[in-house]
Design a protein that fits this description.
The chain has 172 residues and is α+β, with helices and mostly antiparallel strands. It is built from 4 helices and 9 strands.
């Protein structure tokens, strides 16, 4: 189990954010065409992400702390087999599918996403990750705040809803 702090915001100028990341020596991982399938669960969210870079089965719970989301990851399996997916998700009702294009960058333990969803537009996510508990929540929050300022993310652009929630609201 690990923890992370995430800030998500609408991104009116994705090229500008990408330029700032590259100027600050962010490592570009690549462009990932992702489909996230969400399953009904009694606690948190259960998601199967299929992409050309990231393929994971993840069960997590999020809570909001101010403008950031604190995530407790309960299960994280990279490249799960079809059998594993069937065992964990097979009996669960499928809730929604979210498709996006995601550019992925890293600076040390901080992961950056520049996402594009056809129905919603561009977003940027800053995800400060603590895999072993050595950094602590305060440090993760400081990192998110630092990069929010560096990337010139305005408070008015911050989003506390998941893409699945935004898409559900958008369809209403």
């Amino acid at each position: 189990m690990y923890a992370d702090i995430t800030i998500k915001a609408r991104c009116p100028e994705p090229a500008k954010v990408e330029s700032i990341l590259l100027e600050n020596d962010a490592a570009y991982v690549g462009l990932d065409a992702q489909t996230d399938t969400y399953y009904k669960t009694d606690y948190g969210k259960l998601k199967h992400r299929q992409g050309n870079i990231e393929n994971v089965l993840i069960h997590y719970n999020r809570r909001f702390t101010g403008d950031a989301m604190q995530t407790e990851v309960l299960l994280y399996l990279k490249n799960p087999s079809e059998e594993t997916i069937a065992q964990i998700c097979g009996g669960q009702q499928q809730q929604m599918r979210v498709k996006k294009l995601r550019k992925i960058y890293f600076i040390e333990n901080v992961k950056f996403h520049i996402d594009y969803l056809e129905e919603l537009g561009h977003f940027v996510e800053i995800e400060a990750i603590d895999l072993d508990g050595s950094l602590g929540v305060d440090m993760l929050n400081q990192q998110c705040s630092y990069y929010q300022e560096l990337l010139q993310i305005e408070e008015v652009d911050l989003v506390t809803s998941s893409y699945s929630e935004l898409l559900t609201t958008n369809k209403s």
